[in-house]
Write a structure and sequence with these properties.
By secondary structure, the protein is α+β, with helices and mostly antiparallel strands. Helix 1 packs across helix 2 and helix 4 packs antiparallel against helix 5. A hairpin with a 5-residue loop joins strand 2 and strand 3. It is built from five helices and five strands.
Amino acid sequence: MEMKRYQKEENFSPEKIAKLREHYKAILELLGEDPAREGLLKTPERVAKAMSFLTQGYEDDPLAIIRSATFKEEYRQMVLVKDIELYSLCEHHMLPFYGKAHVAYIPNGYITGLSKIARMVESFARRLQVQERLTVQIRDCIQE
């Protein structure tokens, strides 16, 4: 039996990671830590990649996500997608918050693929957020 080898795939901008890494290294120093300490050697880069992942929503176009799976259909009953898990960072403290979103809409001659609604929610959630703005962004995107 042939064993498949794990291949790590990263889609980060090397320039962005390099800049963030230097800032996180400076933060460690300001906190009184030694970034050259063995346990912290790779920490600035790890944090840079983590923050890039947690804020990748800035690189997405939520409306394009929704429109990529919009189909003409004469269906006029409410469509509800429940329990969409979301993970975001509070813009005031950059600390995580999480929860579930429920998105409903009434089609007006067009329906949208349900998985695209979840992807659109994730796209907005992967930005520095407040829950109230997140709600409005989702609503406005669905109404476009």
